[in-house]
């Protein structure tokens, strides 16, 4: 397991290690700084990153992971590899009714339940190499202190109002019952087992007081209605300033269009007061006299988890959270969480009349679906974090796949076929191939030592960036490569600064593709080495240094792989080779000339200063080359689909199909049925923009299917007695094989078109979310 931070290869420079001593080159690692605590420094780029706190009572699935923690991790790693002061905070959200009821079901205390699931969450993220600076939890004294402080300030400033609510009270248990603690008959469909918050049969959202014949879930006795006093947040009174703040923040922090849209729709509807308190035990006590036995609403205190978890990381937490002038806050979450971060939490902070670090950039994702349906824990469908490790595929491959499919504009779909195709076709054939081919050649022909710089090719050793004098003057493969690398680096940093992670990853992959093309254009082989040594030497110097660049640009996405690349290069982890002009706010760089029809993205791209240089110097000796990725057999697609398809419990499959485990496996379903379902899933893969060719093929498949169906029917009727009406088996077989051929063609076209759609996705962003 790689450390969440880049490996420190030690500052003692081996004599065989010849690396440019430029101080902006080396990426500082956590192990370097003896004081492990990261604190903001005035006047520097201080980046505070959070991912939505996962609710504690379940195991996160792949959709949850890409939606918040993994995306935030990529940005945090990128930010560190630009030399920025970065803190990444997350933890489990543990209070509330859902935990209390689940603990009741499992027969443990809420604290025990939280302990169990907190550990589980931490293990999952560790396996995925999510590099939090601190992964904490909300059930701590710091949470109580900070949440109560904010609540009291809101009260003092007149933003809280006491109101009375009709609620159900259990005389036997002597407590008010939260909606989930009440069951009864649904007033809409008469289902007699409806929960107080929702009817499972008709889906109607309910208020417990609406249930017919309600009963207490704890003891079964009928509750009575009583008045309960609660504190309401006058969020309506704060709306004008929250709105003004949000508009400005959205501009400055370049919020995604769906982030803006969701936020605006809340303002448009008008904010309404809501209760900040609950009749529950599992929570932060309400710090108001006469409200003993009540706790703060979990959605009020959940975002307070960010500062309180930071307070458990360092006593100087206020340096991060109370200094909006020196800290930029980046928050990552799924789209369902947006309003809590752009409207409710900022309103609460504004209402304290104190200085708080508020949201700078919000990064939201849509949903990741599993194959053609939803992840479901109860039906055992889809890959949950604790099971990803059971199929023997490295965490980095999972990370790569999820990030390449990050649902940035519309929902995305997890597909085993694509998972395998991306590993074999992109990681192995593109990145892995380039790195291995170059390093093996150097090891074999040069004994692993970089040659001296050949004369007359315009190359200079680092730290000076490689330069190409003019495009017309030099069209050599060397000059072409240098130009291409610098251009791609520009796009990469601008994409990553704007948190367009998918584009960043595509650009990184484009860089290794340029590398492969470079090797082809110079014709790297034994003959080049024997007959045109100067060119061969230049090829090695540039290619090995490109690998060093790749180790930096892929680091945020695949940290174990890039640690491995650095080991094979025997070089310290490095920064992205682009001069840092600081984080430029999109609206701040107007004076730099984003006018004249040039988009802000293009303007920043033009201003970025890449510095591809020969930082691994002549005489540097590399380590031992090894393959970075493993080929995955295409046959595994069907196996994994069955394994994770809700057909058989994945634990049973992982245990090698032990009988008892198989017997315990949830829904009984035959193998045939499973295969059929998998087939259906394949069939249902929809093409958003079908071509005429596709539509025609689809029609032919339908027509041929009908022919086969009719033929089989006739065959049945004929009874096979040898009469004139008998349909010969050979005829049926012939039509069936025609059908299969058409279906295969359609499948191939579907795959081809859907792979194009993945690539085109970026460009469609604005259209689909506008
Ligand atoms: Zn109902
Ligand atoms: Zn009761």
Name the descriptors.
770 residues, disordered C terminus, binds zinc ion, 5-stranded parallel β-sheet, disordered N terminus, methionine-tRNA ligase activity, alpha/beta, 25 helices, 18 strands, EC 6.1.1.10
List the helices and strands and how they pair.
Elements (H helix, E strand, L loop, with lengths): L45 E6 L10 H20 L3 E8 L4 H10 L3 H18 L6 E4 L3 H16 L3 E11 L4 E2 L5 E4 L8 E2 L16 E5 L7 E10 L1 H18 L4 H13 L4 E2 L1 E2 L16 E2 L1 H4 L3 H9 L4 H4 L5 E8 L3 H14 L7 E7 L2 E3 L24 H10 L7 E3 L1 H31 L30 H21 L3 H22 L3 H6 L1 H21 L5 H11 L8 E2 L20 H8 L1 E2 L25 H9 L5 H5 L4 H6 L6 H14 L7 H27 L10 H32 L4 H5 L1
Parallel strand pairs: 1-2, 1-13, 2-3, 13-14, 15-16
Antiparallel strand pairs: 4-5, 4-9, 6-7, 6-8, 9-10, 11-12, 17-18
Helix pairs in contact: 2-3, 4-8, 5-6, 5-10, 6-10, 12-14, 12-16, 13-14, 13-16, 13-18, 14-16, 16-17, 23-24
The structure holds zinc ion (ZN) (2 copies).
What does this structure look like?
Among the domains are: 412-610, Isoleucyl-tRNA Synthetase, Domain 1 (Orthogonal Bundle); 687-770. Helices cover 46% and strands 11% of the residues. The longest helix is centred in the last third of the chain and has 32 residues, at 729-760. 42% of the residues are buried. The chain is α/β, with parallel strands linked by helices. The protein has a five-stranded parallel β-sheet, with helices on both faces. A four-stranded antiparallel β-sheet has the order 5-4-9-10. It has a three-stranded antiparallel β-sheet with strand order 7-6-8, with no helix packed on it. It has 25 helices and 18 strands. Helix 10 (338-351) links the parallel strand 13 (327-334) and strand 14 (359-365). Helix 13 crosses helix 18 (600-607), helix 14 (501-522) packs antiparallel against helix 16 (533-553) and helix 16 (533-553) packs antiparallel against helix 17 (559-569). Residues 186, 188-189, 191, 194, 199, 201-202, 204 line the site of one zinc ion.
């Amino acid at each position: 397991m790689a450390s969440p931070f880049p490996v420190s290869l030690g500052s003692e420079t081996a004599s065989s290690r010849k690396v440019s001593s430029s101080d902006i080159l080396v990426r500082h690692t956590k192990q370097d700084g003896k004081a492990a605590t990261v604190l903001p420094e005035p006047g520097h780029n201080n980046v505070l990153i959070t991912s939505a706190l996962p609710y504690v009572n379940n195991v996160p699935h792949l959709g949850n992971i890409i939606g918040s923690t993994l995306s935030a991790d990529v940005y945090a790693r990128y930010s560190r590899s630009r030399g920025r002061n970065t803190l990444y905070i997350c933890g489990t959200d543990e209070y509330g009714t859902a935990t209390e009821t689940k603990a009741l079901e499992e027969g443990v205390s809420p604290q025990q339940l939280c302990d169990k699931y907190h550990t589980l969450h931490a293990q999952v993220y560790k396996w995925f190499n999510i590099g939090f600076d601190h992964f904490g939890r909300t059930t701590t004294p710091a949470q109580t202190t900070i949440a109560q402080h904010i609540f009291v300030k809101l009260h003092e400033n007149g933003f809280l109002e006491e109101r009375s609510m009709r609620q159900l009270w259990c005389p036997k248990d002597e407590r008010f019952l939260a909606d989930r603690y009440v069951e009864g008959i649904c007033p809409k469909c008469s289902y007699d087992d409806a929960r107080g918050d929702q009817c499972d049969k008709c889906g109607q959202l309910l208020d417990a007081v609406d249930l017919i014949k309600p009963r207490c879930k704890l003891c079964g006795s009928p509750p009575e209605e009583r008045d309960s006093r609660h504190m309401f947040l006058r969020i309506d009174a704060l709306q004008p300033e929250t709105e003004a703040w949000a508009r400005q923040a959205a501009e400055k922090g370049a919020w995604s269009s769906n982030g803006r849209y969701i936020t605006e729709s809340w303002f448009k509807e008008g904010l309404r007061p809501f209760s900040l308190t609950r009749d529950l035990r599992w929570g932060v006590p309400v710090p108001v006299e006469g409200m003993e036995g009540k706790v703060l609403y979990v959605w009020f205190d959940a975002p307070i988890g960010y500062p309180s978890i930071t307070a458990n990381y360092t006593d100087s937490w206020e340096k991060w959270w109370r200094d909006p002038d020196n800290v930029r806050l980046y928050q990552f979450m799924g789209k369902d969480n947006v309003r809590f971060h752009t409207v409710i939490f900022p309103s609460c902070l504004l209402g304290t009349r104190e200085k708080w670090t508020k949201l700078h950039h919000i990064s939201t994702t849509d949903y990741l679906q599993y194959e053609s349906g939803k992840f479901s824990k109860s039906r055992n469908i889809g890959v949950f974090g604790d099971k990803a490790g059971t199929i023997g595929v490295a965490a980095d491959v999972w990370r790569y796949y999820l990030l390449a499919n990050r649902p940035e504009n519309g929902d995305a779909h997890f597909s085993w076929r694509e998972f395998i195709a991306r590993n074999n076709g992109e990681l192995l054939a593109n990145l892995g191939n380039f790195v291995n081919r170059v390093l093996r050649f150097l090891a074999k022909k040069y004994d692993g030592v970089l040659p001296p710089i050949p004369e007359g090719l315009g190359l200079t050793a680092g730290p000076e960036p490689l330069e190409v004098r003019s495009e017309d003057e030099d069209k050599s493969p060397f000059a072409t490569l240098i130009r291409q690398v610098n251009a791609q680096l520009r796009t990469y940093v601008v994409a990553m600064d704007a948190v367009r992670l998918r584009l960043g990853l595509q650009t990184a992959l484009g860089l290794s593709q340029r590398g492969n093309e470079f090797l082809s254009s110079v014709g790297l082989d034994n003959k080049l080495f024997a007959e045109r040594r100067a060119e061969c030497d230049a090829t090695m110097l540039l290619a090995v240094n490109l690998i060093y660049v790749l180790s930096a640009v892929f680091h945020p996405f695949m940290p174990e792989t890039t640690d491995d690349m650095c080991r094979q290069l025997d070089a310290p982890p490095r920064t992205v080779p682009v001069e840092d002009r600081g984080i430029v706010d999109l609206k701040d760089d107007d004076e730099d000339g984003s006018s004249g029809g040039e988009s802000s993205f293009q303007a920043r791209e033009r201003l970025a200063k890449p510095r591809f240089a020969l930082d691994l110097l002549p005489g540097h000796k590399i380590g031992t080359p090894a393959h970075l990725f493993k080929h995955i057999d295409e046959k595994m697609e069907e196996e994994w689909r069955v394994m994770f398809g809700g057909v058989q419990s994945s634990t049973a499959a992982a245990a090698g199909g032990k009988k008892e485990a198989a017997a315990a496996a949830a829904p009984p379903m035959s193998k045939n049925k499973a295969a059929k379902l998998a087939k259906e899933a394949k069939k249902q893969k929809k093409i958003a923009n079908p071509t005429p060719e596709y539509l025609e093929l689809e029609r032919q498949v339908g027509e041929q299917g009908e022919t086969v169906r009719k033929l089989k029917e006739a065959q049945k009727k004929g009874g096979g007695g040898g009469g004139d009406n008998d349909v010969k088996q050979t005829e049926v077989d012939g039509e069936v094989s025609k059908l299969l051929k058409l279906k295969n063609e359609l499948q191939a076209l579907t795959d081809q078109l859907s792979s194009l759609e993945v690539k085109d996705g970026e460009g469609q962003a604005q259209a689909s979310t506008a």
